[in-house]
Design goal:
The protein is mainly α. It has 13 helices and no strands. Helix 1 packs parallel to helix 11. This is Drug/metabolite transporter (DMT)-like permease.
Length: 291
Amino acid sequence: MSYAIAFGLMTALFWGVTDLLAQRAARAAGVVRTMIVNQALGCCVLGLLLIVDCGQATQIFTAPLEAWAIAIVGAFFGIGATLSLFRALALAQVASVVPIVASYGAVTTLLAIASGDQIRRPLIFGLIACISGAILTAASQSSQQNASAANFARRSIPWSVTAAILYGFQFFLLGREAVPVLGPIAPVMVYNLTGLIIYALKLALVGSRSEPIERPAWRYMIGTGFTVLAGYVAISAGMKTGHVAVVTVLSSFQSPVTVVLAWLVFRDRISHHQAAGLCLIVGGLICIHVG
């Protein structure tokens, strides 16, 4: 359980940093080009890891086709979730979207329980506290919206819910079926390669009228690529422990991590609601450790 908690927290940390970098990367270079760089970087790094780790490569080549099929299905779930997330963000502010999307940990937990996983009561309380804390920390930023913003926020709800459901299914499939057979690296490689192909085709078919990417933007894009990749590897390694629900829920409070990092780096103010959400998360972590 300790390793599952550690990997879940690492994932939240990496993806929390990603939130800080991704906004600047997307504004400077566009969403599609940022995603292409992220996926290409992930394929290169993971390819090198597979070359170095011969044991991992052997495990991949001897894996049954069913595991590969599940990894591919999981990749499409993840890509669909990402596209739904960006569609929601196009309609509303981040603070209106993130609280709903952050509930993907609850989806994975419900799927794990429905599939027969036995989860003890303290662990359930801890998971609920962590999910509630993550949502509260992110939702508090959207409490002061005007009527127009509130209207757009309502329109974004179906897309946000879709993203949460698809992310929940993706992590459940990876943790339940793909990672135990393929290891922690191959499913992430499949996700990156599938995403790279889809985003590259989209860019080729639709075209891009954007200006050439300036040098400062590359730093944000490459930084985002590394942190996203590190987060996926961490969550896959955590799922290898068998505690899929725990790892996924802990990864979902990347938004509180972003809040804390923004306070440390940019001196952004932390509201009372955000502080309460962080306290809920700490209490949830204690329950998870006890459970």
